């Protein structure tokens, strides 16, 4: 089954191995809601 995407691919999820994609204001796993891994878009 293909993964769901909503933005450009930026890497692999450390929790499940699927793709990390840019959502609206954060990076999240393309396997959401099964995997809830996220990263902030901007780090300070």
Features:
four-stranded antiparallel β-sheet, about 35% strand, about 45 residues
In short:
This protein is 0% helix and 34% strand. It has 44 residues and is an all-beta fold.
Describe the structure.
There is one protein chain. With 44 residues, this protein is mainly beta. It has one domain. The chain has no helices and four strands. It has strands at residues 9-12, 19-22, 26-29, 38-40. The chain has a four-stranded antiparallel beta sheet, with no helix packed on it. The mean pLDDT is 85.
In angstroms, what is the radius of gyration? Answer: 10 Å
The helix count comes to 0
% residues in beta strands: 25-35%
Mean pLDDT: 85
User: What structural category arises from helix and sheet content?
Assistant: mainly beta
Largest sheet: 4 strands, antiparallel
Helix content: under 10%
- Strand arrangement across the biggest beta sheet: 1-2-3-4
Low-pLDDT stretches are: none
Number of domains: 1
Gap from first CA to last CA? 37 Å
- How many runs of DSSP E, i.e. beta strands? 4
Encode the helix/strand succession as letters: EEEE
